[in-house]
């Protein structure tokens, strides 16, 4: 996990978001978006207790909506923060 986090700290354009259910982090998504608006997901993880519940898909959909809206700080609630 440390190598993954370092990638997002050191590389311009790479973003890492935690995914929360209430106050508990249950997943992460790490990605890079190019100048053409293409999204490349590099990491996607969901806590085993929360798998098969749609959280992986939810993370992807929230990032797509977040980036489409152009607001990097709009994630909240059952989503990225």
Provide structural commentary.
With 81 residues, this protein is α+β, with helices and mostly antiparallel strands. It has one domain (2-69): Aminopeptidase (3-Layer(aba) Sandwich), CATH 3.40.630.30. 30% of the residues lie in helices and 32% in strands. It contains two helices and three strands; from the N terminus they run αβββα. The chain has helices spanning 2-10, 55-69, and strands at 14-21, 24-33, 39-46. It has a three-stranded antiparallel β-sheet, with helices on both faces. The longest helix has 15 residues, at 55-69. The chain is globular and about 35 Å long.
Report how far the terminal alpha carbons are from each other: 18 Å
The overall pLDDT average reads 83
Count of alpha and pi helical runs: 2
Q: Based on the coordinates given, report the CATH architecture.
A: 3-Layer(aba) Sandwich
> What is the name of the CATH class?
Alpha Beta
What is the CATH topology? Answer: Aminopeptidase
How helical, in percent, are the residues? 25-40%
> What does the largest sheet look like?
3 strands, antiparallel
State the secondary-structure class.
alpha+beta
Q: Can you tell me the CATH superfamily? A: Gcn5-related N-acetyltransferase (GNAT)
Along the chain, the helix and strand elements come as HEEEH
Low-confidence stretches: 73-81
Domain count, please report it: 1
Rg from alpha-carbon coordinates? 12 Å
Overall 3D form: globular
Percent of residues in beta strands: 25-35%
Oligomer: single chain
Number-wise, the strands total 3
Q: If strands are numbered along the chain, what order do they take across the biggest sheet?
A: 1-2-3
